[in-house]
Amino acid sequence: MTQTPPLLEVRGIRCAYGRNAVVHDLSLHLPRGVIAGLVGPSGCGKTTVLRAIAGLQPLVAGEILLEGRVLSGPGAAVPPERRGIGMVFQEHTLFPHLSIGDNVAFGLRGRPAAERRRTVERMLALVGLEGLAGRYPHELSGGQQQRVALARALAPGPRLLLLDEPFSSLDVELRQRLALEVREILVREGITAILVTHDQGEAFAICERVGVMHAGRILQWDTPYNLYHDPADRFVADFIGEGVFVAGRLVDPETLETEAGVLRGDRAYPWPPGTAVDVLVRPDDVVPDPDGPLAAIVRNKAFRGAETLYTLELPTGARVLSLFPSHLDHGIGERVRVRVAADHLVAFPREEEAAA
Ligand SMILES: Nc1ncnc2c1ncn2[C@@H]1O[C@H](COP(=O)(O)OP(=O)(O)OP(=O)(O)O)[C@@H](O)[C@H]1O
């Protein structure tokens, strides 16, 4: 149905270590030029999926196509070095005995010397390391080394770039800066990429599409905005961002009677009136308002610079999180008034009833 075939198609793949199946019937489509991410709790299978795409992990079932050509599948297993796929790993990926220039030129063996030299220069300039070709990896900082790893992966002109936790060995400030830099480089070069990270903030900063994985499956493949505001299920709602569930009951399709008051949003819920639900309330849904209908008590606070994250106890005893501009400073135990901005609240039928 799509006009142009996706650059990468993963169709119903299964992967296992021995008898232990860890990726189940997983599919994804990646259009050309898109930077996508995979996030999920430790052990959910992110790295295994990336390794399967790179050709480092055999498939039990399914197939993987790049530009319509089968790379892995029944009767096909194109070796990793012939896939046209670049990879950047977490750390220690440079060859310590090779200069920076030779590291970057590693994937260019067999090309004319002049072309190799030009490409190395261009790649080092691209990652902001001009003039460092003669140095050795141990003479560079961790951030510089990861930039070299990126330059080396991009040098042969891969059709797809895979990044497996490329910033996780760096300190927080550097990883945030480098993540944005890398995004700029990939966008400028029109590179299609998949980033695996356990840091959803990093995925949101870099990726246009993010898949949330759990136990070997992708539960939702969507924009960061939709993952946050319109999570497909309870796991995604819980995993992405901050927030708490408050108990409630559907009065009519648009109205919820909850521990945080009666809430009317802009969406209609499909369940019969009376259905018990849990409503996801994000910190940005609970707004300070001197005339607000809810009197809450401050139970905890975490200063975050521009904002403070308050834990507030409502009259029903339910607790919600709320972001206040940090100049609105309240002490623990103080009473504040808030309202719930309920425009697009997400609700799920309460689990025991859903299961009944
Ligand atoms: N070489 C291996 N042999 C056996 N089991 C493995 C091997 N590598 C991974 N596993 C198991 O496969 C599952 C998926 O692992 P994988 O590394 O893909 O997860 P992940 O989501 O990338 O985790 P993390 O975020 O911790 O890196 C885990 O249960 C893990 O224990």
Automatic annotation (TrEMBL):
PROSITE patterns: ABC_TRANSPORTER_1, ABC_TRANSPORTER_2. The keyword Repressor does not apply. Keywords: ATP-binding, Nucleotide-binding, Transport. Residues 8-240 form the ABC transporter domain. SUPFAM superfamilies: MOP-like, P-loop containing nucleoside triphosphate hydrolases. GO terms for cellular component: ATP-binding cassette (ABC) transporter complex. GO terms for molecular function: ATP binding; ATP hydrolysis activity; transmembrane transporter activity. GO terms for biological process: quaternary ammonium group transport. The keyword Nucleotide-binding applies. This is Iron(III) transport system ATP-binding protein. It comes from Inmirania thermothiophila. The lineage of its organism: Bacteria, Pseudomonadati, Pseudomonadota, Gammaproteobacteria, Chromatiales.
